[in-house]
Amino acid sequence: METEPRVPSIFAVNVLAPYILTALIERPDRLVYISSGMHRGVQLRVDDLLWTKRAWSGWSAYAESKLCDVLLAFAVARRWKNVRSNALEPGWVPTKMGGPSAPDDLRQGCVTQAWLATNENALARSTGGYFYHQRLRAPSANDVRTQEALLAECGRISGIRLTD
Predict the structure, then answer these.
(1) Annotated catalytic residue 62
(2) Exactly one of 66, 96, 130, 132 is catalytic; which is it?
């Protein structure tokens, strides 16, 4: 499925929309990006974010989009020193997408987002972290060059630049 000609909806919703919103909003105190543990299973193809050079794989496109969300969160944390920017994975929860046999707790799946957005403890007020159930977890997205390449490509596709 595509939203605009040649822009897959997974990329448009999961990557381009958060990028554009981030670039256009007045800088808030905190930003929270929703990722997925699936981001660990892929290598990002910055040269083919729109899947024009390879065969389509919905699973891989989704996982790559969630890797992009982590890269975006970390790039913002690095560039915008006065904004706390973090990413998280809610877990595999029993939703329409996750299915009824998903093993994680649905309620726990939303706690970390609210905690990162509002809590005043030191960990929730940190920046550049990746969280799962209110705990830091190692992501697969620390490479600054890949972060910058993603920002450049999102800027090219959208026509909107993320400023420092």
Answers:
(1) yes
(2) 66
Q: Output the DSSP codes for 112-158.
A: HHHHHHH--STTTT-SS-EEETTEE---S---HHHHHHHHHHHHHHH
Beta bridge partners of 8: 2
User: Which of 41, 38, 46, 43 minimizes the C-alpha distance to 11?
Assistant: 46
**Angle subtended at Cα 75 by Cα 12 and Cα 4, rounded to the nearest 5 degrees:** 10
On whether the pTM is more than 0.85, the answer is yes
Dump pLDDT digits (tens) for 96-151. Answer: 777 777 667 777 888 999 999 999 999 999 999 999 999 998 877 788 999 999 99
Catalytic residue among 62, 81, 96, 132: 62
State yes or no: is 96 an active-site residue: no
Residue ranges in the chain assigned as alpha helix (H): 9-11, 17-24, 58-79, 106-118, 144-158
Three-state SS at 97: coil
d(CA 50, CA 127): 29
